Amino acid sequence: MRIAGLTAFAAGALILPATLAPAASAEVEDITIYALGSEVPVACDYVGANCSVMARMFGSDYALPATVTINGRELSSPERLDYPDRERSAIRGTWRPPAKGTYTIVATQGSSTKTLVVEITGDPQLGSGSAGLLPSGSS
Description:
This protein is mostly beta strands. It has one helix and eight strands; from the N terminus they run αββββββββ.
């Protein structure tokens, strides 16, 4: 009986620290998206835009792993930025909307999640470097 009592005590001792541990403190603050390539950020609302996507996190557990997905697919080649003196971090990456439609961007860190829904409504835009690719009409 004494062994059974010690076993129960030991099992309880293992559970106790987990129940007394403070809750994780990490939260996704926001998600921003804008088109790159201009001096002033503009809406990222057209097919093929070169969009910057950033999710910012804060809290004492700011360094926990975080993910950003777009319609369920992870943001490709994200860059992680950590600011220990401010208990903040961010994930930043580039995304090019492949087609018109609705895209759901989800940032997750620990149990915190934020969602941003983006509507891509514009047709692809020709950049200034594409002028030489069109026929001029002169002979």
